[in-house]
Design a protein that fits this description.
The chain is of the alpha+beta class. It has one helix at about 1-85, and strands at about 100, 110-120, 125-135, 140-150, 155-160. The chain contains 1 helix and 5 strands.
Length: about 160
């Protein structure tokens, strides 16, 4: 019988240990949920931050590309102005008079080119100012000083981007 009491006592101790483990597990379930919620909230904040950075970079890249398109529109306007000068070289340009967009249609509703040509008789140079507008929002202006020799060769003396 003493053996039976020892086995019964061991069984009671074993059952008590199992109950303690179960109670510990039940008490820790809340802490695990709180820890998981905190980790998830930190990860969500980091994800939001990374998404914000990447969308900012994409927007800046798109704005830069649109600015380049406006610059190329301005260059096409200066090419049109040089063609106009070559076609009308016999015309006497009034000193300081600016001819503007003689035959430049808009490319579409949102993209256009505006250019002007003026002649300086003292140094025999033409000044071309051309502005490209892309999406009615991005605007680039370039200024060229050119000379025209007797063989109808154009020499670009100066080309610069005008900041407004």
């Amino acid at each position: 019988m003493a053996m039976a009491q020892i086995n019964k006592r061991q069984a009671n101790v074993h059952n008590a240990e199992i109950n303690n483990i179960n109670n510990i597990n039940k008490n820790n379930k809340g802490a695990v949920y709180i820890t998981v919620a905190m980790i998830l909230s930190v990860l969500l904040i980091l994800l939001g931050f990374l998404l914000n950075i990447s969308s900012f970079d994409a927007r800046k890249s798109r704005e830069y590309a649109d600015g380049i398109k406006a610059y190329y529109l301005a260059q096409s306007g200066s090419t049109q102005a040089m063609a106009y000068i070559l076609e009308n070289k016999e015309q006497n340009f009034a000193v300081g008079e600016a001819l503007q967009n003689v035959h430049t249609p808009p490319y579409n509703e949102q993209n256009s080119v505006q250019w002007s040509v003026s002649y300086n008789e003292t140094d025999n140079t033409y000044t071309i100012i051309s502005t490209g507008i892309y999406k009615n929002r991005y605007k680039k202006t370039i200024k060229l000083l050119i000379t025209l020799d007797s063989n109808d060769r154009i020499t670009i003396n100066q080309l610069k981007l005008v900041y407004e």
